[in-house]
Amino acid sequence: MLKIAEHEFNSRLFTGTGKFSSANLMLDAIQASQSQLVTMAMKRLDLSSGSDEILLPLQQSGIKLLPNTSGARNAKEAVFAAELAREVLNTNWVKLEIHPDPKYLMPDPVETLAAAKILCEKGFVVLPYVHADPVLCRRLEEVGCAAVMPLASPIGSNQGLATETFLKIIIEQARVPVVVDAGIGTPSQATHAMELGADAVLVNTAIASSQDPVAMARCFSQAVETGRAAYQAGLGQVSVRAEHTSPLTGFLNE
Amino acid sequence: MHPTKPVLESKHVSTITVSINDLPHIIPETLSIEELLLAQNIAINSVAVVCNSKVVTKGLWKEQACVEGDSFEVFAVVAGG
Question: In Å, what is the CA distance from A125 to each residue of A5, A91, A116, A122, A139?
């Protein structure tokens, strides 16, 4: 069972709540995904349109809510966003994300490490979204992060495991759970991440932007389970040369 | 005859001006933060309030009164990845 900061999860699929065409579709997709943790964002309230109606049904569902700091451009803003989210959701969990670059949404490693240190000292359970940088992930672990969330490829790009080589190193070295986040575009890519030994994956766009998000959420749920089971079963060695699976002697010549 | 009405109102209720998310609002001077939020039809369970750049914890909303010139920022939880 996956455990992050003493909290146990039966499902290793985390989902985002963004980009769904309606709140009901989002709720149905989350239910189909069997996720027990979903991410949310903070935004200045538009007084003319009122508040979002998604919060109450999510709170009633019992799913753990993980607020993110998206929109923060530096450590100071991220700490502020985390404190706001704690006020609203009554949680000290936070997905720390600082990506000032609007084109590729690359996470800023310097600001992220600085914010992580402050937030950990303030008692937050910090899950930082970072580039697949093994050195940075170790540093984040050292300052007290409860997990690391390295990216597979740019947010929302559906490009899959572009960072596979580095994800493997992170997974090998990490003493906290590794949640592969961002860019996973297909269920097979989620399976692959889990086969590599990731502790969980976070998927949003691939589900929300599919033609049938509820069906796709179910596919991702199965994919993550399959990948985890395959990892636990122990994958065979990869070999350059052929290794015969049938006896090669005795049949024709003797 | 009719023109006396606004004068009477102004005698009974003193008002102050505060801003909420950069928009000015004229409100009675006795309002608490919670009353201010309710008057704006804001769902108080799903927002965080910042007053003059400082987070105001929920426990203080009932007792902290709005003051002339206060700058409030109200944040809500929304969908996100």
Answer: 7, 9, 9, 9, 16
Size of interface A-B (CB pairs under 8 A): 102
Task: Report how far residue A159's alpha carbon sits from residue A37's, in angstroms, rounded to the nearest whole number.
Answer: 23
Q: Where are the domains of chain A?
A: 2-233
Break chain B into its structural domains and give their ranges.
4-76
Q: CB neighbours (10 Å) of residue B16?
A: 17
pLDDT in tens, A118-175: 999 999 999 999 999 999 999 999 999 999 999 999 999 999 999 999 999 999 999 9
- Contact A42/B52 with Cβ under 8 angstroms? no
What is the ipTM, given to two decimal places?
A: 0.78
Closest CA relative to residue B13, chosen from B3, B31, B28:
B28
The CATH number corresponding to A2-233 among 3.40.50.1820, 1.10.443.10, 3.40.50.2300, 3.20.20.70 equals 3.20.20.70
**Is it the case that residue B4 has pLDDT exceeding 90?**
no
Please list the helix, strand and coil fractions of chain B in percent, rounded to the nearest 5, in that order. 25, 40, 35
Catalytic center residues of A: 95
Distance from CA of B9 to the nearest CA of A (A): 27
CA triple A19-A22-A25, angle to 5 deg: 95
Return the CATH fold of B4-76: Ubiquitin-like (UB roll) (3.10.20)
- Interface residue B23 vs chain A (CB under 8 A): yes
Kindly state whether A216 is in contact with chain B, defined as any CB-CB distance less than 8 angstroms. Answer: no
Please tell me if residue A17 touches chain B, with a CB cutoff of 8 Å. yes
Other C-beta atoms within 10 Å of B71: how many? 13
pLDDT band at A56 (very low <50, low <70, confident <90, very high): confident
